[in-house]
Design brief:
With about 210 residues, this protein is α+β, with helices and mostly antiparallel strands. It has two domains: about 15-105; about 130-210, Immunoglobulin-like. It has four helices and eight strands, in the order H-H-H-H-E-E-E-E-E-E-E-E. Helix 1 packs antiparallel against helix 2.
């Protein structure tokens, strides 16, 4: 079977490949990369709607953790709306870049590889991860020292017991710390942080537990 060689820089638009939390992290990385990016002036007005749809999707994911069928349907509808806007942004970026690979690389989107393209930079492990009580009642603060070549972070929390099927509440940020507030008191939670690289690489901390005050 012959190998397909990509001669013109193109964005990978098969966004359906992302599971929910990974999709949220990817969209957040795209928004960060495109915000105030001088290569894409026509795309800038589209970012507000993309950010709003991402916020709605994050909320819907959190609300659907109890596996309620209605809330899962709302989450899936929010995901569909987010994907639709993401495709529109990708089309706008493609138009403005006009095949310029350097411009497309600055957009945060994944590109098809060309012959000779090297692997993405190695994403280092998350170091210094800890969970502490916050100044906010019922709050737990997740923090770490960071990870090499990281572009954004996903902070996650789930109630005890921790199982392979645990539903994680996720918040994606560009900062190394985040506080989950208004948690029930005297309850044990498990927490972890995911680091997201510039080309979608993921590094995950070991989970830590803490009982809320």
């Amino acid at each position: 079977m012959s190998r397909v060689i990509i001669k013109i820089a193109k964005i990978k638009i098969n966004f359906m490949r992302f599971f929910n939390s990974r999709l949220a992290a990817f969209v957040n990385a795209v928004i960060i990369a495109l915000s105030d990016n001088v290569n894409f002036p026509l795309t800038q007005p589209m970012l507000t709607n993309l950010s709003d749809l991402l916020a709605s999707f994050n909320t819907a994911m959190a609300n659907a953790q109890n596996r309620d069928k209605v809330l899962i349907g709302i989450r899936d509808t929010a995901r569909a709306a987010l994907l639709l806007q993401l495709n529109s942004v990708a089309s706008s970026v493609t138009f403005e870049a006009a095949g310029d690979r350097d411009k497309l690389l600055s957009s945060g989107f994944d590109l098809y590889k060309r012959t000779g393209d090297g692997p993405p930079s190695t994403l280092g492990p998350i170091t210094g991860f800890k969970v502490v009580d916050s100044d906010i009642p019922g709050g737990l603060k997740l923090m770490c020292d960071g990870a090499k070549n990281c572009k954004s972070y996903m902070h996650q929390i789930t109630p005890d017991p921790l199982t392979p099927n645990s539903a994680w509440q996720s918040v994606t940020t560009t900062t190394k710390e985040y506080t989950f507030a208004n948690l029930p008191s005297s309850k044990k939670f498990w927490c972890r942080i995911l680091a997201i690289g510039t080309k979608g690489q993921v590094s995950m901390s070991d989970p830590l537990s803490r009982v809320t005050q």
